[in-house]
């Protein structure tokens, strides 16, 4: 398997299409590597020149005398495939292609890119790009990139790495990271992803010992299951992945698909997949960088209890608000610790937020005393201090830092973020002492929320994923409700009992047996049964014969050509909480499973929860808990609690069913499912196979 | 009426408790005014010294020789009231009190503060504080504050002003504003608000010609109606108010007896009030400052169409996502304008976001051409450009700025925010050319959303507020459903017809007349009718007698002492959309009105909309549109659309009812209200009066 060393630690590089002009695309990487003193051999390839930027040039890649590990390509699209072939002959491991004019242009470009993919597969040479801005390894000063940011922002050492589909945006992330003082080790842009794609980049970074934090940007992901694996590799290595997936909005998605010409995949599923593997989905670049910065001490608390200590009561309230928004627990201090603080400053707020008050100006020792009380007695998983420009004051900066350091003595494994307004050199002193600093207190809270989410995910580890047995293919063609329910029942799912009746007499008999019943037309040709007059609820044995005749007549009137198998009779099941459970095959992630509250909640409030399938019953319980309306299952509004465990069990079974039929299934939905106080049961089901869809 | 000049433009100041030590609370303001050269007379008052910080000192305020406009008090709490009395005798206009030990300490402090309030009221002297950090007027270099930030950050001229309840947080806001290069004209902290409070500050700032943008911070507001007036004054003057109201997470503590009250939470009302008057509620300091900064050109577009032009397709997608989150419309370019762009760069995205692509590096004229096409043809209300560090490049910064300026020639009334990563001097050049700059593109989008919200609110102006007639007081004591419905019907509200029946015969007769009927126990002592077995739905004439007897028996069994008036019979009204309409008297804002979807939507999803009452039917329509579930009223899921106009009319009537009864009402709720395709009707109602509550 490829490693990051294979890709970005070469001993030699050939630049095909090298330019003597250091401002041109083919000239910049050469200029970077000369200026930065790349730790290896550099061979410009240019048939028109003897030397390029002072180095001897070679007319073709084949004529380069030594071994070539890495080939950079900056020639027009038409000539690229030939360079890849030559690179393979030269036993290069990697070819990075700047050239555009491939899939992003449509037409012939698509075929030309497919040829690059094929060459990568067949020769084993790894291809980065085409249409990418390059990559770098700052440790070996290896800069195969034409971004100009390198000239203005020479990378500094550090364990953060960046993978980005977008070159220009990848440069932006790099530049802003640099300005924040973040050391970037590896930087990769993947462009059109003929071979190397973003999910694999994350795996490579997760496997590399020099990388401790991963930032990623993507508009789409080619291989959802590989993304899952990559995120699990990072989680196992306790490496935070901060992932920005754009194209959430309708306009954004349209812009992304025109930009990269790739299949989008549903955004809510990305959301669920990232979260379920412990990655943090960043909504803005600033958020991404804030979190990467807060990761520098590499302390990830495995809990959400947040202690706040502040010099401003107002800032305390503000941070408490932000903490609640972020799902953190601003738990109160134990009573004895509160009493201790009150003894020192009677009018201090000691509950949490703990307010050192203006008394602080008279007695700086309050800071270590108060924070010690919080750390020792509060049992907080993390602390944030708000000191505003007091921390930047020429008089107070040093004593404050000293007292904070003193408070943390022996607690170096705990995280204490600071909100300070201070000149760079003072801020740096705080950072060097292990305190990440944020000017804005809300941003400090949000960064803490991410650290805690990482810590909890690292602790929790990988979710159980049950085995999906190989099952025989699903039957072809449209499938009626009865058939769908039968298949699901066979797979162990709780579906309501039914009987197909073909006469008024049979109908009456069934209703006698079931009690109050639901009557529904059974026809493979009628999908919208209610519209066809094909549904009657609460039918009693007395009404049954008439109900049968009316349903058959209505259905006939609705569609004279429809095949009518008869009427499906089921016992009426009422009460409980109406749910929808479903699964489908996502183009990016494969089988995914979904749970939602019924009807309006799913359609209008979009209160649904997703996971990659299959899921265990425990994971299914988590999915139910994630619903905004989960309170309903717990028995809100005077109703009894629903049997969530049975519902979760059904969801797990459904996910296994979907995964087992991934090759022939398009989607399956049990709607409604009634979550009763004792058990859960599906009243209707729909299975769509791929052949149905194609037809 | 007081003006800001009265408060913060004095010709003279006396500092009672002035200290010779410039680091002490009583010494700092004097030191500030000496260092900054305050444009007026300064009289230190200190009985123990001949001079204070080099100025002649006076033993008492009375002994100060000249006129004193402004008195600053830094003596212990016990002596403060006497100073206020002396200040009144001296015909001072304003007393600003640093001293703590008042209401914030509880106990005697509360009475001492009440005395200050009384003195202010009776003498006409305006009191700022107590327990406040002070204020400033940077134009006259008047610094009656002990914040130390002034030493490190001398205010620069500008039209932004700050009002904050919190002193420490007010200092933080000032400091961060200063670091952003924002000129702050007036800065006020109100502390305990014995007299001057935050709402009045906003009014004073709104009325002052030197102020163009207002930032405010509050934990609570003393006078909700005055806040409304202040915000309307600002709106009429086209001055943005950026308001940070903290304490969101403490909501729900003030739960009241009625249903609406318990889920309202005061915070949701602040939210609604701020929005309805065109103020922007900031969630973080950074957001507040971003918006104040973006207000500098004072251009507020009255629409939400956003044009995006970018050098990175990825950033375009990201900004489109952020725009959708912010409710902006990233509308596509007209086809002809797209064609024009495609002619120049065939592979450019021309839809919006418009991507200038790397082609930009070869031809900078693309920028004015593309942006001109967007401005002239796109009809956008505002534009954002993303240029990242290209805008900071030594080579490209100047030509890019030139081309942006050229594109805006003749369009100086349009707003064009820039996302750039550039050194301070380059950023300043952009700002001087009229382009506010943001490093982070998401923050640029959010700032634009605020500018557009201001523009729309300025254009729209004040909402009609109908007259609330004076009505006779509500009856005392607990009120049954029937009485509540009768009162509401008299006020013109649509409530379902009902009849009180006292025997099985009367019940049968009513059911014969109404058709299928709803039976409910009528008792002033039974609030939870369903629990008491007191409700039967869908009763026919045949079942009526039995239903009557069963309800009466169940109610008797439930509470043998309850007064049973009989059974209330109404025609069954089914279908439509179930809503809750309510109103209550909020302690801060007075009468407020509320609309929500029924049951679960209101209780669990908290999908409710508020306004100060009374509201016009038009405003009521806006309230319905604000509901997340408003799609249900428009006929989602194959249902007919509800008669939203009738519903809005009812909501308006209910708000007038509440406002008219503001003196005796606690809360009123119509729940459920069925919004039918034709009309709306309340099926139940509850009125709680203040006397009910007290009992």
From TrEMBL, chains A, B:
One of its GO terms (molecular function) is acetate-CoA ligase (ADP-forming) activity. The keyword Ligase applies. GO terms for biological process: tricarboxylic acid cycle. Pfam families: ATP-grasp_5, CoA_binding_2, Ligase_CoA_2, Succ_CoA_lig. Residues 7-102 form the CoA-binding domain. It comes from the Bacteria. Keywords: Ligase, Tricarboxylic acid cycle. SUPFAM superfamilies: Glutathione synthetase ATP-binding domain-like, NAD(P)-binding Rossmann-fold domains, Succinyl-CoA synthetase domains. This is Acetate--CoA ligase family protein. It comes from Thermohalobaculum xanthum. The lineage of its organism: Bacteria, Pseudomonadati, Pseudomonadota, Alphaproteobacteria, Rhodobacterales.
């Amino acid at each position: 398997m490829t490693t990051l060393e294979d890709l970005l630690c070469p001993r030699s590089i050939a630049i095909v299409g090298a330019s003597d002009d250091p401002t041109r695309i083919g000239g910049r990487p050469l200029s970077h590597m000369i200026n930065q003193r790349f730790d290896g051999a550099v061979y410009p390839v240019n048939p028109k020149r003897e030397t390029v930027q002072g180095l001897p040039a070679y007319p073709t890649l084949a004529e380069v005398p030594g071994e070539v590990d890495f080939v950079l390509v900056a020639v027009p699209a038409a000539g690229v495939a030939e360079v890849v072939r030559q690179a393979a002959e030269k036993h290069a491991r990697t070819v990075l292609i700047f050239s555009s004019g491939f899939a992003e242009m449509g037409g012939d470009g698509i075929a030309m890119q497919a040829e690059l993919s094929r060459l990568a597969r067949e020769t084993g040479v790894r291809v980065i790009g085409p249409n990418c801005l390059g990559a770098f390894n700052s440790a070996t000063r290896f800069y195969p990139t034409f971004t100009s940011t390198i000239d203005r922002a020479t990378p500094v050492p550090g364990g953060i790495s960046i993978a980005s589909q977008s070159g220009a945006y990848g440069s932006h992330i790099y530049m802003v990271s640099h300005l924040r003082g973040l050391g970037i080790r590896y930087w990769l842009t993947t462009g059109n992803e003929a071979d190397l794609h973003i999910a694999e980049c994350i795996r490579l970074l997760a496997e590399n010992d020099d990388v401790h934090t991963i930032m990623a940007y993507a508009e789409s992901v080619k291989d959802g299951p590989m993304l899952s694996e990559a995120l699990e590799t990072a989680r196992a290595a306790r490496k935070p992945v901060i992932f920005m997936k754009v194209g959430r909005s309708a306009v954004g998605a349209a812009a992304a698909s025109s930009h990269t010409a790739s299949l989008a995949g549903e955004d809510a599923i990305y959301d669920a997949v990232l979260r379920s593997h412990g990655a943090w989905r960043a909504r803005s670049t600033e958020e991404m960088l804030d979190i990467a910065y807060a990761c520098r001490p590499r302390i990830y608390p495995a809990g959400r209890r947040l202690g706040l200590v502040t010099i401003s009561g107002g800032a305390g309230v503000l941070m408490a608000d932000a903490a609640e928004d972020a799902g953190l627990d601003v738990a109160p201090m134990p009573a004895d610790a509160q009493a201790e603080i009150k003894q020192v400053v009677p009018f201090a707020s000691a509950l949490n937020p703990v307010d050192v008050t203006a008394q602080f100006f008279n007695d700086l020792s309050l800071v270590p005393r108060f924070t010690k009380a919080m750390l020792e007695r509060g049992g907080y998983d993390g602390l944030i201090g708000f000191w505003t420009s007091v921390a930047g004051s020429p008089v107070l900066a040093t004593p404050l830092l000293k007292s904070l350091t003193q408070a943390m003595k022996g607690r170096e494994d705990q995280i204490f973020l600071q909100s300070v307004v201070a000149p760079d050199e003072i801020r740096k002193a705080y950072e060097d002492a292990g305190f990440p600093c944020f000017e804005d207190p809300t941003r400090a809270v949000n960064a803490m929320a991410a650290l805690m989410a990482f810590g909890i995910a690292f602790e929790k580890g990988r979710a159980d994923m049950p085995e999906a047995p190989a099952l025989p293919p699903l039957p072809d063609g449209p499938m009626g409700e009865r058939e769908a329910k039968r298949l699901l029942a066979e797979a162990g799912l709780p579906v309501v009992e039914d009987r197909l009746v073909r006469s008024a007499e049979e109908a009456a008999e069934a209703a006698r047996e079931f009690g109050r019943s639901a009557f529904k037309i059974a026809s493979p040709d009628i999908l919208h049964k209610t519209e066809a007059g094909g549904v009657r609820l609460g039918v009693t044995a007395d009404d049954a014969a008439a109900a049968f005749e009316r349903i058959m007549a209505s259905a006939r009137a609705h569609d004279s050509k429809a095949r009518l198998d008869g009427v499906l009779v089921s016992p009426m099941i009422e009460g409980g909480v109406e749910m929808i459970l479903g699964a489908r095959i996502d183009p990016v992630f494969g089988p995914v499973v979904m749970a939602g509250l019924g009807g309006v909640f799913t359609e209008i409030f979009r209160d649904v929860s997703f996971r990659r399938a299959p899921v265990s019953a425990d994971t299914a319980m988590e999915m139910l808990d994630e619903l905004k309306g989960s309170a309903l299952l717990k028995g809100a509004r005077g109703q009894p609690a629903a049997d969530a465990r049975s519902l979760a069990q059904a969801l797990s079974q459904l996910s296994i069913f979907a995964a087992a039929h991934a090759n022939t299934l398009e989607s399956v939905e049990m709607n409604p499912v009634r979550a009763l106080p004792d058990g859960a049961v599906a009243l209707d089901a729909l299975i769509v196979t791929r052949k149905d869809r194609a037809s």
